[in-house]
Request: fold
Amino acid sequence: MAEDLYSVLGVAKTASAADITKAYRKLAKKLHPDLNPGDKAAEEKFKQVAHAYSILNDEGKRGQYDRGEIDATGQERPQQRYYREYAGGEDGARYRSTRGFEDIGEFSDLFGDLFGRGAGPAGRGGARFSMRGQDAQYRLEVDFLDAVNGTKTRITLPDGESLDVTIPPGVSDGQALRLKGKGMPGMGEGGPGDALVEVGVRTHPVFKREGNDIVIELPITFDEAVLGGKVEVPTISGRVSATVPPGANTGQTLRLKGRGIKTKSGAGDQLVRLSVVLPEKIDDDLKAFVEKWREKHGYDPRRKLKEQA
Reply:
């Protein structure tokens, strides 16, 4: 990769870390192979963008790149040693010092101590400098039910490889999954880094999560609230029957044991919060019944509020 890494991401060399991340996400979303099936040019550009981000997003590597210590591929540049000329003697004759070539062995030993004996092209044994590859970061959006029940999905890595990812049951929003050896390649004999997949859980129109409990709001009719009865309740594993007690009220909560998020230590519950809903149209029969009932059994539900205010 000969192209300047900043140019690949379309940012200035003075760009902040936040600007670099923003540019990467914008390009990755546009060029991702899943969104451009069969487009080899987009796939190659996606790889370049991901590689550029892997270096510029790392503060240490970015500094090395800016100082010219590593190139655009992430490899170390050959370290050069310079020897000064100096003027000496009355006649001003110039000499080139050979001082420095004599201690090249000591110079190699220094790097051997820093990076491991034999590191560097001039090290004893001729071993190359080795470094583990950088971890690669991804974000994966999954549906709510897939997150709580577990599933398998597929992601595409920067090198174009497709990888099946197992989403364990109960994964939470923002949780990161580590895929061993699926990150950036290492240097020399250093192994590859890992892929860190941050899971984003989409919201659900019915279910909400509170810890390991699942919470839903269940509308019930006026007569169900008064008389009680059996009602059908959706859960994350299917529909079940639950009993509404007579005299139920809005805000009352039913607990379905073991119907929440399943973990190694057990399972959470499902909390069913009742909400009494009147019919959209109040007919004459209901009006007459309520008016007659109110004449004999009127009550003030706001009495305690008035007393406490």
The first helix runs from residue 5 to 9. The CA atoms of residues 226 and 247 lie 5 Å apart.
